[in-house]
Backbone:
């Protein structure tokens, strides 16, 4: 059951960019709060997207998959953000081309798709939020392309760990070498070798299904 007061408090806390009271009121009346546990699929490939979500707590990772089922990590969504891929699919009535997975426990406010265009015309803060979302994700995708094209695997791995620390605000990462290999589209052996090299340089500490990250992350 939708609780407008609860939705309003979540939106005001996480999305101060929405300054029109009428927009906040509409979001509060239409929004549905949903919770996901770490590892849950929030958005799946080849499925139509029926609602736009606002991430009010936690983090979500966005994954691309090829025809053979190989995965490639693209970027993280953090608190106060939404998914540009979801916005694009909704506006064009297309199936999702990415998978969104809860990196940690998440709380979302889901909104009906039909209001996306209406609010673009009606509320300047919503329009600005959508454009800023596209710009942010576009820059992150460029960084992903650059890392694949120009970075060595050890540099890509280090960036991947830094991004995960930033997304979760945790320096203790619960993840296997195989999971990292899937998301960077390489082999477990390569990841294990590179992680051991990082450990020798005192950048990380390895234990079973856990990586302790030592370098300072801004």
Residues:
């Amino acid at each position: 059951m939708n609780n407008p007061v609860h939705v309003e408090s979540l939106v005001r806390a996480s999305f101060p960019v929405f300054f029109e009271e009428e927009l906040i009121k509409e979001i509060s009346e239409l929004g549905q709060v949903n919770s996901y546990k770490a590892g849950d699929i929030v958005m799946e490939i080849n499925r139509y997207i029926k609602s736009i979500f606002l991430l009010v707590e936690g983090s979500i990772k966005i994954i691309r998959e090829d025809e053979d089922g190989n995965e490639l990590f693209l970027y993280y969504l953090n608190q106060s953000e939404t998914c540009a891929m979801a916005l694009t699919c909704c506006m064009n009535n297309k199936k999702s081309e990415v998978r969104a997975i809860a990196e940690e426990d998440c709380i979302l406010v889901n909104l009906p798709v039909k209001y996306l265009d209406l609010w673009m015309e009606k509320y300047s803060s919503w329009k600005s939020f959508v454009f800023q979302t596209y710009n942010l994700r576009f820059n992150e995708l460029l960084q992903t392309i650059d890392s694949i094209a120009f970075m060595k695997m050890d540099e890509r791995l280090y960036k991947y760990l830094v991004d995960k620390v930033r997304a979760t605000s945790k320096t203790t990462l619960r993840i296997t070498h195989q999971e990292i290999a899937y998301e960077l589209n390489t082999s477990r052996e390569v990841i294990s070798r590179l992680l051991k090299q990082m450990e020798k340089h005192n950048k990380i500490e390895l234990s079973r299904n856990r990586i302790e990250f030592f370098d300072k992350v801004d």
